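Supplementary Text 2. Reproducibility record for the structural model of the 79-residue chain.

All settings were left at their defaults, and a single model was retained for analysis rather than an ensemble. We include the record here because the model underlies the residue-level annotations in Supplementary Table 4.
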Amino acid sequence: MKQLKLSPDRRQRLIEQVQTMYARDFDESLSAFRAGELVDRMTTLIGPGVYNQAVEDVRAHLQGRLDDLSGEVFVEDPA
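Retained model, structure tokens:
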């Protein structure tokens, strides 16, 4: 499986969010290293599925817009 590429800033924000979530929800502290490992593993596991769903959502949206375009710009041929 290919891992989703995150910018260093985005990865750091996710690490901090995981640390905050663990402290709040599980009353457990995680080091930045452990939180980073969780972020990396989760992006590897769910990244491709999320990416594929986003591509499908965009495709469906654009197809709908293209279908609407035909009705908007169609002009009957007088001949």
